[in-house]
């Protein structure tokens, strides 16, 4: 779909004055951001998630097609899936729950973990959160979330940072939609979320029944039957639950 993404710049700037090198690095980062913006806009269309029609997101129609196309164009078979291009079930469930029970986030500081499209963070802002930060390690996800904030007219702060490598930040609520999708991610996320809970942060997790979900540490607070596709989930509707961490 659309034009190919320009290659991300990785080379060093020529040796010269410090100010010149800084300007070159700034130009490279600007070029990368523009390339990421083009990537998102040419591979998605504006659509409303099935159970969160209050928001519009830049979403793709076919996971495998977009993923394979990106790997081919960038000549990188190890490129991870474009999580930012889909409204995953866990994220939709958390977003719907936040909008259904807005007093959970109203006037509070919220962190949207592994944000992808930024859906959970945008829902929190729509529900009246005082400030929301969405974080992801993927620079394209950061761009996608910013574009989604722009189209919805919401002041979402989006950062590229691996917060799991740091202690939980000073927020009131952490939203985590569909973060237990594989063993490696689950091994990092679970202790971090437990640490956040022990620090007094309310943690909400959305999950459609992934294998690595740590059920003993969670308490169910809501459930939604969410339409999906056989390509993504193997069924047309899947019950997706929202959990609070801790008793």
UniProtKB/TrEMBL annotation:
Residues 18-34 have a biased composition (Basic and acidic residues). Residues 1-11 have a biased composition (Basic residues). InterPro entries: Ribosomal_L11_MeTrfase_PrmA, SAM-dependent_MTases_sf. GO terms for molecular function: protein-lysine N-methyltransferase activity. Keywords: Methyltransferase, Transferase. Residues 1-34 are annotated as: Disordered. GO terms for biological process: methylation. It comes from the Bacteria. PANTHER family: ELECTRON TRANSFER FLAVOPROTEIN BETA SUBUNIT LYSINE METHYLTRANSFERASE. This is SAM-dependent methyltransferases. The lineage of its organism: Bacteria, Bacillati, Actinomycetota, Actinomycetes, Frankiales.
């Amino acid at each position: 779909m659309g034009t190919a993404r320009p290659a991300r710049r990785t080379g060093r700037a020529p040796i010269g004055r410090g100010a010149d090198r800084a300007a070159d690095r700034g130009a490279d980062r600007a070029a990368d951001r523009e390339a990421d913006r083009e990537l998102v806009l040419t591979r998605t269309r504006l659509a409303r998630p099935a159970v969160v029609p209050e928001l519009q997101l830049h979403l793709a129609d076919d996971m495998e097609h977009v993923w394979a196309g990106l790997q081919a164009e960038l000549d990188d078979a190890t490129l991870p899936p474009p999580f930012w291009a889909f409204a995953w079930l866990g994220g939709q469930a958390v977003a719907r729950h936040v909008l259904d029970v807005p007093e959970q986030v109203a006037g509070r500081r919220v962190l949207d973990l592994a944000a992808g499209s930024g859906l959970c963070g945008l829902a929190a802002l729509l529900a009246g959160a005082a400030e929301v930060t969405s974080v992801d390690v993927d620079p394209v996800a950061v761009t996608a979330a910013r574009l989604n904030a722009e189209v919805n007219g919401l002041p979402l702060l989006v950062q590229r940072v691996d917060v799991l490598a740091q202690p939980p930040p000073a927020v009131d609520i952490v939203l985590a939609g569909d973060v237990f999708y594989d063993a490696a991610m689950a091994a990092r996320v679970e202790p971090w979320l437990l640490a956040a809970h022990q620090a007094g942060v309310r943690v909400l997790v959305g999950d459609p029944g992934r294998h690595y979900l740590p059920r003993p540490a969670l308490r169910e607070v809501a459930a939604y039957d969410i339409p999906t596709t056989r390509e993504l989930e193997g069924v047309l509707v899947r019950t997706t639950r929202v959990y609070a961490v801790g008793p």
